Amino acid sequence: MNSVAGFAHAHQPPRAWAVVAAAAVAMMFSAAGIWAPTLGIFLAPLQHDLGWSQTQVYFGVTLAYLLAQLAAPLSGWIVDRGQVRRLMLGALLLQVLAFAGFSRIGPALLPYYLLCALTALATLGVSAIPLVRIVNGWFSRRRGLALGVLFAASTIGPMLHPLLAQRLIDSLGWRQAYAVLAALILLLGFGATALWVRENPQAGTAGAAASGPRAGWRELSDALAQRDFWVIGLWLVLYAYAYGGLNLHLVPLLRESGLSGGQAALAQSLLGAGSMCGNLLAGALLDRIHARRLATLFAAVPMAGIALLTNVPGSGAAYVMALGLGLAAGSEASVLMYMLGRYFPEAVLGRVVSIQFIALATGAALGPSAAALLHDHYGNYQALLVVNAVAFAVAAGAPLFLRKYRH
Predict the structure, then answer these.
(1) Best CA proximity match to 178, nearest among 110, 113, 250, 104
(2) How far apart are CA 209 and CA 198, in angstroms?
(3) Nearest alpha carbon to residue 385 among 237, 242, 239
(4) 192: buried, middle or exposed (CB in 10 Å: 19+, 13-18, 0-12)?
(5) CA distances to 45, 178, 187, 269, 325 from 168, in Å
(6) Predicted structure pTM score
(7) Diameter of the chain by CA atoms?
(8) Domain boundaries in the chain?
């Protein structure tokens, strides 16, 4: 263990865990924890009041994630330059503006698409790209546990926000609901970051010395040439595609299968609960079991849930499927960040994470729109379930080709 890692391990309690808690609150009350989990709740009001089709609504997500890929490498470069906190604070303010804008949109689609793009770009600033750098600076031997706790705590938002959004829409209307969510991002997300999120000063000093204007480019080139980099990218794009389509379409999918609006919203919240459990489980196992085995195991779980929902319709099967999907989704962040930290050097980790985000954003962008197109073509969600089950199956096999850890 090097000196920085030794410092991080020796000084973990209590400051390091306080930083993790504050970072989790920031993720919980940011666009990452609110926008996608609640879009299915806002879908019906948007269609009814603005006259949009399902495909038009979800195309905003596709467009946003595709545009976000352009900014991902820049955010990784900012992280490697030691500007994590400034990146997070600026991104949270942009998210507040975007959600306030959603509350004022009219029937024209262009403003909606621009706000979706702004939301996706701002989400990069409060994502795994900066937070993995913070965790790695404070933790060494218990890094897997710290990542698991961070991403598990952050899933409280996706678990609660669908229920909150439904209640706000029912009582205040969808426009006021977006305004309230903007206020939550400002007060809790921005507030927690401003008060408590800090990088380890010792790790930051070492990182600054190692990441000057020209430092790390050879290491980055070496990282991009590794087979492991591309295997992880393949696993990630398929995983994100399959999960993204099911997540954003879960509420209308379950409504179509006969569940009430309240039951579908509860299933969406249970997905968040499963995500929390997945992160905790992955965090507990990552320091003991090779991440490639866990990646394969967790990718196989949603296939069983899809099979259950297909053959045993009803609220019980829907809740189990949602929990399984959340379990797989929750483990993904912890497993991915742990793998990248063990396969690639710290000096270029921010850029490696940001480049891998392109794979994540590609899958997440294509999944919802592909699901909408399949639904509009076939008139139901059966084709979506088949295609996404196959994607999960291929994703489960990809990590088996990874080699031993390098770092």
Answers:
(1) 104
(2) 18
(3) 242
(4) buried
(5) 12, 9, 18, 15, 26
(6) 0.67
(7) 60
(8) 3-401
The CA distance from 205 to 200, in Å, is 9
- DSSP H helices in 103-200: 109-123, 128-138, 143-154, 156-172, 174-184, 191-196
Residue segments in the chain with a per-residue pLDDT below the cut of 70:
1-14, 203-216, 407
In this structure, are residues 132 and 348 in contact, taking their beta carbons and an 8 Å threshold?
A: no
pLDDT at 14: 57
Give the SS3 label for residue 380. coil
CATH 2.30.110.10 fits 3-401, yes or no: no
Output the pLDDT for position 42.
94
Cβ contact 354:123 at 8 Å: no
Q: Which two tokens stand for residue 77?
A: 């470069």
Cβ contact 101:310 at 8 Å? no
Give the pair of three-digit tokens for residue 49: 């009041």
Cβ contact 135:154 at 8 Å: no
Q: What's the rounded Cα separation, in Å, for the pair 336 and 147?
A: 10
Model pLDDT for residues 10-23, shown as the tens digit of each residue: 444 458 888 988 99
Token pair belonging to 208: 């600054």
- For residue 302, what are its two tokens? 């949603």
What tokens were used for 30? 């940011």
Tens digit of each residue's pLDDT (9 = 90 or more) over 115-141:
999 998 898 889 878 888 888 888 877
Question: According to the model, what pLDDT value does residue 173 have?
Answer: 95
Residue 51 sits at φ, ψ, to 5 deg, of: 80, 20
Q: Are 219 and 343 in contact (CB under 8 A)?
A: no
Q: Which residue from 230, 256, 259 is spatially nearest to 356, judged by alpha carbons?
A: 230
Cβ-count burial 120-155 (b if 16+ within 10 Å, e if not): bbbbbbbbbbbbbbbbbbbbbebbbbbbbbbbbbbb
- 37, 162 contact by CB (below 8 A): yes
Determine the Cα–Cα distance for residues 397 and 121; give it in Å rounded to an integer. Answer: 31
User: Cα–Cα distance between 128 and 135 in angstroms, integer?
Assistant: 10
Evaluate whether 233 touches 401 at the Cβ level (below 8 Å): no
Tokens 């206020």: give the residue.
Answer: 183
Query: Which token pair is 210?
Result: 């190692």
